[in-house]
């Protein structure tokens, strides 16, 4: 059974760095043709892809946010970590991790999401 | 980045009647491998999105056949043949031909 679970702080202060962890089970982060993505959704707004980490450690970032994002993985812990620097109130959102097949573009499993508020 | 534009943004429908959502991309979604990576998701409040359709028209296993996808190039459509109460929520199109991007979402509600 494939699952993904996000964890991280519920509240961060402006200018701080956010670190989120996605812990996966039921598949390997090195499974050929798979990737794990971070996607966010501000309250009442649309979904936005942030970053993607492929099975072979290739990394891709949103054009508008790439200077603030870093994605990495710890294969031994089955975890994918996203850091986002210089947080601001507009970054308040539910942050999801999800699995995608690179062969088909199918995003088939999502975590439940974690709500992060940015406020002083 | 490829911009995905959905219309309408809100769709009040009568139970048992059809619904249709359009999604237009700012450039062709045909990948160099010949595939078109266009998907549709359904999201209920407080829940993550759920994949309905991928590769324009392929239904994920378990998705009712009242959902269908069509289109090519830059213009795509999701149709619900007969809306049921459980279909309310927000629908998103998403392209994965380049770095993935979503449409703004279309809210389907019952009249």
Descriptive report:
The complex is a heterodimer of chains A (120) and B (111). Chain A has 120 residues and is mostly beta strands. In chain A, 0% of the residues lie in helices and 52% in strands. The mean pLDDT of chain A is 96. Chain B has 111 residues and is mainly beta. Chain B is built from no helices and eleven strands. In chain B, strands 2, 4, 5, 6, 9, 10 and 11 form a seven-stranded mixed β-sheet that branches. A four-stranded antiparallel β-sheet of chain B has the order 1-3-8-7, with no helix packed on it. In chain B, a hairpin with a 3-residue loop joins β5 (50-54) and β6 (58-59). The model of chain B has no long low-confidence stretch (mean pLDDT 96). The A-B interface holds A 37, 46-49, 52, 60-64, 96, 98, 100, 104-108, 110-113 and B 1, 35, 37, 39, 41, 48-51, 54-55, 60, 92, 94, 96-97, 99-105.
In short, what is this structure?
Chain A is mostly beta strands.
Give short descriptive properties of this protein.
heterodimer; A: mainly beta; seven-stranded mixed beta sheet; B: 111 residues; mainly beta; four-stranded antiparallel beta sheet; 11 strands
